[in-house]
Structures are given as structure tokens and as C-alpha cells.
Amino acid sequence: MLSSIKVSSPPSHIKNVERVDEESEDPILPPPPSEIPPLDFVKDLASNIQLNLFLAVGLEENQYIPTLSYSDFASLFRSGKLTWASIIYFVTEKYKRLAGGEEEGLKAISEKFNIILAKNLSSIEEPKNVLLFPGRWPGFTLGTADALAQDILAHTLNKSHIFISRVAHPLTNKENAAELNPHLTWGPSGLLYTERYFYDAEVGMGEEIFGREIRFGLTHNFRKFIFVKVKSHSDPPQRLLNLFFSG
């Protein structure tokens, strides 16, 4: 469940997208064997009416929400072509290909995702939103997510909103989440984000044990999250009221 956090504070710096030499022939490394979001968490995010999502970047393949594949992300990131147009191309081509496969379960999910994507990429539809989930995939940092969010806001046809996940301080709860969270940003950020939502349950992120079993109950992998709604640079500025979230 998400709890809204009202905001009134100024912007923080946005880092540039990190780039890798597109001539590099180094193999794409797999993501780390830790910080794996559990499927129940993904399902909860996909069905949340406040986030209202139709696409995610940074989550594992799943049956609840269309995603950009890690291999496609890594290829785009290394070539310096991590843009909204490229993401949409790779995502739509992936699910078209999978929908034409022979595995019935995967085929049915992919056909459903094709319908979701076609509907929500139309300029005439009411906007659903995009989630950027940085932190696990190599190269997908908070700075990369911030820069990608601005590219999406500048080029999406139906004016979708962009949410970015941020790891909250371990002691965050619904009562104190209105304060400026030190793990949310390194400075005031009211001009950067318009809304914040606190996920009020600890999430046991997965970790591969000895390269085989994925365990989700290890206490050192418990995380709390805040989801921030990104404001376009073209939006009018807000006046600074204080250094805390009003709440």
C-alpha cells in the first residue's frame, strides 16, 4: 500500500546519463545476484491505482507488467541510445515476437501485453504511467533514471507520468516519511518531483545463494521504498517553503 507524501522544496542536480563506448566488444555482464524484486512486490506495484502503470524499466521479466529486457537495456545503455523511442521499439518487438511463439502461457501473456502497449502508446488514450526502478542493473543509476525520465516526458505522446523508485531510510515509516528522507535525494527536490508515495511494507529483496536458489527472507536484504513522480523541466517552478515535506 502506498501513502502519499506532500512536497514543498527546490530541485536537486540531475546527473547526465553515463555512456559506454559503443565500439566496446566486452560481453554484457548479467545483473548482480542480489536486490531481486519479489514477484508479489511487482504484482502489487502493477495493480496499484496511484501509480497506474503500463510499463517498467529495471524490473525482472514477469506476468504482471510489460518490461524492457535487461539485455536490451544493457545494449542501449552501452551504445548511448537509452531513449524513450528506443525503449518502445525494443519492448513492442519483444512481445510481438513472444506472442508468435509456441509456449501457450508466455504467448497469452505477451498478447495481453501487446494490447496494453498499443492502447497506452496512443496519443488519444488517457495516460497511464511508466516506472523506472534503478539500483540493480549495472549502469541504471538514479542519475540515469532521472535523465531518462526527462527524455520520456519530452517525447511521450499521451503525456504519461514517470515514477522513479528510491530506497528509503531503514527507519522510515508512515509517521516520519514526511521529513526530508536522506536516502531519497542529496538536496531539496521540490522542483524535481511533484508527488511522493511511501510503500509502507518492508520488501525482502531476493539473493541467489551459491548461484542456485533465490532467497527472499534474508534480513540484510529488507528494503523500504519511496516512489517519486517526476516533474518536467518545462513545468513552472515552485516557491521554497521549507526543507521538509509538508504532510
What does this molecule look like?
By secondary structure, this protein is of the alpha/beta class. It has a domain at 2-18 and 30-62 and 125-230. Helix content is 27%, strand content 19%. The protein contains 5 helices and 8 strands; from the N terminus they run βαβαααβαβββββ. The strands form 2 sheets. Strands 1-5-8-4-3-2 form a 6-stranded mixed beta sheet, sandwiched between helices. A two-stranded antiparallel ribbon has the order 6-7. β3 (129-132), α5 (142-155) and β4 form a beta-alpha-beta unit. α3 runs antiparallel to α4 (104-120). Residues 6-23 and 239-247 have low confidence and may be disordered.
Structural class: alpha/beta
Helical amount: 25-40%
Low-confidence stretches: 6-23, 239-247
Total count of helical runs of at least 4 residues:
5
What is the strand content?
15-25%
What would you report as the Rg, rounded to the nearest angstrom? 18 Å
SSE topology sketch:
Elements lengths: L1 E4 L33 H9 L5 E5 L12 H10 L4 H16 L4 H17 L8 E4 L9 H14 L6 E6 L25 E12 L2 E3 L3 E3 L6 E9 L17
Parallel strand pairs: 2-3, 3-4
Antiparallel strand pairs: 1-5, 4-8, 5-8, 6-7
Helix pairs in contact: 3-4
Features:
single chain, alpha/beta, six-stranded mixed β-sheet, 8 strands
Quick rundown:
With 247 residues, the protein is an alpha/beta fold. The protein has five helices and eight strands; from the N terminus they run βαβαααβαβββββ. It has a domain at 2-18 and 30-62 and 125-230.
